[in-house]
Amino acid sequence: MVISGYLSDFSLPEILQFLDEGSKSGLLAVQPSGLGARAGVASSTALSRHYFIWFNEGRIIAAADQQDYRGLVRMIAQRKWMDESKLRQLISQCPSGSAFGSFLKSQNLLSADQLRLLFSTQVIRQICALFELVNGSYQFVGTVQPPFLEMTGLSAPAKEVILPGLRALDNWSTLAEKLPSSSSSLIQNLQSQPELRLNAQEAQVQGLTDGRMPLQQIAKQMALPLETVQKIAFRLIVTGFAEEVPLATEAEARADTPAELESAGTTGIRQGFLERLMGYLNQI
Amino acid sequence: MGINSAKLGAVLQNFATGTSDVQGVALVTPDGLPLASSLPGGMDEERVSAMSAAMLSLGERIGTELTRGGIDRILVEGEDGYAILTSCGQDAVFLVLASKSAKQGVLMLEIKRAVSELKLLLI
Amino acid sequence: MEIMRLVVTGPVGAGKSTFIRSVSEIEVVDTDRRATDETAQLKAKTTVALDFGRLQFGPDMALHLYGTPGQFRFDFMWDILIRKAHAYIMLVPANRPAEFRNARRINSFMQQRSAVPMVIGMTHMDCEDAWEMENVAIALGYLDLSKAPPIVTVDAQDPASSGQALMAVVRQLMQAHLKPRH
């Protein structure tokens, strides 16, 4: 399976949601073609750079900005937890098919806390920074060996990165078109049950997902700027908590009882009618 | 093309304030996007534009299918007033909202004048 | 006259008007206008009220097809049309991931207003950059295909392919007859 395209069409949060909900395994490569103001470091080298994120069944297992499988080793050396020659030696000892981080832990060379710190720096922080990308392309390839040397052995659901990534995001220009409309309401997403911790405001908006109240009104009620509520709503949508429902007109938000909804459809159409239609269509 | 939207806005504004019983006006593209408007508070310009375009396109379709010829205007008469849609050349639709007390003859004449003025600005 | 009303919906450029033209036996009543928004990059004309097509298959039996506009500013038309519908088909352009979220919004709009049987038709599947059906389904929020509505591939320009999609809709209606929902 290969999926590729532009972040302007399918944004990074949407890609992460897709890979998470689809329980995908493989390698996502992101290539920037323009950086946000904050990430604008040494732009010429940064522009040609690729970012790599590896997935296993919808969980992120590693991330890197080079494909030399030495990112984790560099991080350990940088922290002076081990020197490079020792690490080189350990690499050759690491049994194939096991994460390098887990191997170091099994040798009592790294603690669980140290691994967590490495994972957070390598995965969470690195990917959150990618949310700042204004333009770029992505490619996901489904058949890829896990990068054992880059792996701490820890993993996180892709969606778990979306929340902090979007909370910290300053420049929403690429996502402007994705934001739910001010006149839309939210309903609970019944297809997915994310196990993520919402902050107070997110939880409050989530509590108002009744399919009736437009975001405009939620903003008023919470005394927040509309845009803030739209961003919160977007976070809830891409993490699978909520679904956007356009409301058309306020008059239409009136309560249609489920009973009414059910009866509207099938009444009036006879089975014989359907059979005739089927026969007719068969001949087209 | 270089449409002078400030001027369009001014003509609409003049029409809305200078014509008795007119409560709101909008000039929209045939595919339902706002060009300029002066609408009562609480009315969403984008929504009004889309509705105007949908209504006029259906009206025009009725004109041809039911052999009524080209459509000059569509008039919606409600309990609380009128909504009048007038085609304003190739590129625009003119919507006028008027109260029930409006005199139809006068209103139609005023609209005709405004449309010819607007058409010049749209060329 | 016995009439079944089918709504054809979906985001901009999914092929709704084309689909109705493919299956209608009468000249389709359309309300096309020259597009002046971002739609113009995709196609010259866009539906602003509805498309209407008909398929008469007996002296007193007909299928009426109502196509909706794709843009959100016309959501009042979606509302008008779905309320009287016996079923709907949502067309999704599989080659344009930018529209997946819009398709999802349209679908939740319809689901909120109507519990009639529905089918998803994936269009533009022959394009090089089209997503696989299963992946589009995930992007539309159908994570478990066994719980998803029927998904069919549609070539909206081809009457036979469009007819197949209609059959999937009719099959859904037949099933709804057999097992009344509660």
TrEMBL record, chain A:
<dbReference type="Pfam" id="PF14332">
    <property type="entry name" value="DUF4388"/>
</dbReference>
<dbReference type="InterPro" id="IPR025497">
    <property type="entry name" value="PatA-like_N"/>
</dbReference>
<protein>
    <submittedName>
        <fullName>DUF4388 domain-containing protein</fullName>
    </submittedName>
</protein>
<feature type="domain" description="PatA-like N-terminal">
    <location>
        <begin position="4"/>
        <end position="173"/>
    </location>
</feature>
Automatic annotation (TrEMBL), chain B:
<dbReference type="Pfam" id="PF03259">
    <property type="entry name" value="Robl_LC7"/>
</dbReference>
<dbReference type="InterPro" id="IPR037587">
    <property type="entry name" value="LAMTOR2-like"/>
</dbReference>
<dbReference type="GO" id="GO:0032008">
    <property type="term" value="P:positive regulation of TOR signaling"/>
</dbReference>
<protein>
    <submittedName>
        <fullName>Roadblock/LC7 domain-containing protein</fullName>
    </submittedName>
</protein>
<feature type="domain" description="Roadblock/LAMTOR2">
    <location>
        <begin position="8"/>
        <end position="98"/>
    </location>
</feature>
<dbReference type="GO" id="GO:0005085">
    <property type="term" value="F:guanyl-nucleotide exchange factor activity"/>
</dbReference>
<dbReference type="InterPro" id="IPR004942">
    <property type="entry name" value="Roadblock/LAMTOR2_dom"/>
</dbReference>
<dbReference type="GO" id="GO:0060090">
    <property type="term" value="F:molecular adaptor activity"/>
</dbReference>
TrEMBL record, chain C:
<dbReference type="GO" id="GO:0005525">
    <property type="term" value="F:GTP binding"/>
</dbReference>
<dbReference type="InterPro" id="IPR052705">
    <property type="entry name" value="Gliding_Motility_GTPase"/>
</dbReference>
<dbReference type="GO" id="GO:0016787">
    <property type="term" value="F:hydrolase activity"/>
</dbReference>
<keyword id="KW-0547">Nucleotide-binding</keyword>
<keyword id="KW-0378">Hydrolase</keyword>
<comment type="similarity">
    <text>Belongs to the GPN-loop GTPase family.</text>
</comment>
<keyword id="KW-0342">GTP-binding</keyword>
<dbReference type="Pfam" id="PF03029">
    <property type="entry name" value="ATP_bind_1"/>
</dbReference>
<dbReference type="InterPro" id="IPR004130">
    <property type="entry name" value="Gpn"/>
</dbReference>
<protein>
    <submittedName>
        <fullName>ATP/GTP-binding protein</fullName>
    </submittedName>
</protein>
<dbReference type="InterPro" id="IPR027417">
    <property type="entry name" value="P-loop_NTPase"/>
</dbReference>
